[in-house]
Amino acid sequence: VQLQASGGGLVQDGDSLRLSCAASGGSFSSYTVGWFRQAPGKEREFVAAIRWSGGGTLYSDSVKGRFTISKDNAKNTVYLRMNSLRSEDTAVYYCAVTRIIRSSWALPEYYYYWGQGTLVTVSS
User: Taking 90 as the threshold, does the pLDDT of residue 27 lie above it?
Assistant: First the structure.
């Protein structure tokens, strides 16, 4: 399956953005879809994940209450709604898929297909 992440851009502190992750060449039906981000000079960081079947979700503490992950079955797309953006949210955001158990959703090494990334820049 190929993943296409989109929706990034330049916003102001406090603004909102919605990222999209679309699948092609397959579907998300047997996967958990995760969002990660990587800021310059930093390691890739888990943001959120959603199980396609059942819709269970997980968020990192840094985004809980501000970001919402959701899915559209008909469009085979996962979204990341980001509210109250801060300068520390500036990063390249990646979507990826895994079949690992929930306790490992935050670990990037268990994801095997990755999108190309979309840049989010939050200006203060």
Answer: no
